[in-house]
Specification:
Layout (H helix, E strand, L loop, with lengths): L1 H139 L1
Amino acid sequence: MVLLHRNVAELGEQEGHAASSENRSEDLFQSVEHMEALLKAKDEEINKLQNRKSDFQDLEEEREKIIKRMQELEQRNFELEQQVLKAEQSLASSLDARQQAEDEVRKVIEVLDIKIFDLNSLRQSLANFLDKDQLGGSSEC
């Protein structure tokens, strides 16, 4: 009877171990599934980060191109500003030269007006002289 009791106890223990093993197997299976789900999520996250890295590299290349283009445009803008300054200086110089020419023309016109007045006065004087000479010469003959 002791032997039977012992066998029953062993069977109970084996059953407990079997149930415990089954529980452990179920726990392990759930843990494996959980780990696989985490691994899949991490793989997806890695793929997203790699895509972002690729996008970031593309953005960085585009940024470099934009910076280069901006520097080129700034250089071109500087050159155009220099051309505008030269054109403004040339215009100012031309305006000064034009003003000087106009002033000289005015002076020449004033001198010519005086000369014309003098010539008109001389012509009038000669005409008067000739008239007097003719009048005086006719009376002497």
